[in-house]
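Researcher: Please translate sequence to structure tokens.
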Amino acid sequence: MAKALMNDVLKRSLGSPLTSKDGIYIGDIIKVARESNDYYVKYIILESKTFEGPGNRFFTIPASVRFLNITHKNDIELQFPKDDLQFAKGVEVDQCPEPHLKFGRSIFELYNYQAPEKQTNWL
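Model: Translation complete:
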């Protein structure tokens, strides 16, 4: 998928559900982040209540076709099983590294993340 098209769909995805490729609900996209000087989305932040344990969990997922798929209905799917998120490296929200798609893991669980007010879309 062209980067500009994926970018436009992701920018409008705020509040949308994220599912696995087999249709299992994982959570909701609560933030779409981009560089302040760049048009393109860098990553999404996912809020998930579907894992065991108290409270919600938050994950950063790079805006890349390696991680996300946009269906013909503009639904957004994770490119790997939901359970793989449980193995994401945990980091403090203020220490989250930049996504490095060529080296190592690029999905992180955010500790001490304060979810923004609920929004329906970015535009």
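Researcher: Any highlights?
Model: Residues 3-11 form the longest helix (9 residues).
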